[in-house]
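sry for the spam today, last one i promise. struct tokens for design, 200 residues
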């Protein structure tokens, strides 16, 4: 069910990008409050840009209408950003430009049986522990248009005593971000047979 939802999410986000093309940009060296202000100033009623991914302190992705993203990139540079780089995408993930497929996404999430988590799960919309199936379902739905609070999520795990992180998938990008958020953390990639052997 989880893999089917991931596939459905990708298909819907692609369609949203076709219905309402947007863009995303990586901003380096500006804090979140400053970038929130820059995005608010760059947005208009019909063209919105917002923080989409709070990856780690000093590394943030913004998302929204192309013109608004371009204005926000200029605003970020004026506010002291070290770099503002457009990403090679045609969708505006984690922004209101995903609204066109939100209802279909909600239906897909509602169609899946969910149980209360047996181990603590940090939802990335609010960076808090999801205790019930209903909370998990709401977080997964809201995530389509909401900011990914990765920095706050890692800090919440770190505050709960978590020091070891396993990154499932190819590469170790998240492990690098974790290390920049929680310097005491140890990260283990889990993407190939050798990684599995190292964890034994």
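last one done:
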């Amino acid at each position: 069910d989880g893999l089917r939802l991931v596939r459905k999410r990708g298909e819907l986000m692609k369609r949203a990008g076709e219905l309402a093309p947007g863009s995303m940009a990586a901003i380096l060296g500006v804090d979140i409050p400053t970038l929130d202000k820059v995005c608010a100033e760059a947005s208009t009623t019909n063209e919105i840009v917002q923080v989409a991914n709070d990856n780690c302190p000093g590394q943030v992705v913004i998302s929204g209408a192309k013109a608004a993203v371009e204005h926000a990139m200029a605003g970020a540079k004026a506010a002291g950003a070290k770099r503002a780089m457009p990403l090679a995408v045609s969708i505006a993930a984690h922004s209101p430009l995903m609204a066109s497929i939100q209802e279909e996404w909600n239906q897909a999430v509602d169609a899946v049986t969910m149980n209360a988590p047996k181990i603590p799960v940090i939802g990335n919309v609010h960076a808090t522990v999801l205790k019930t199936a209903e909370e998990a379902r709401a977080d997964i739905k809201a995530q389509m248009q909401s900011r990914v609070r990765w920095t706050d999520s890692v800090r919440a795990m770190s505050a709960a005593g978590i020091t070891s992180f396993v990154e499932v998938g190819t590469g170790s990008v998240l492990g690098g971000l974790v290390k920049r958020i929680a310097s005491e953390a140890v990260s283990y990639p889990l993407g190939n047979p050798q990684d599995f052997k190292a964890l034994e």
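The first strand starts at residue 23 and ends at 28. ok im logging off now
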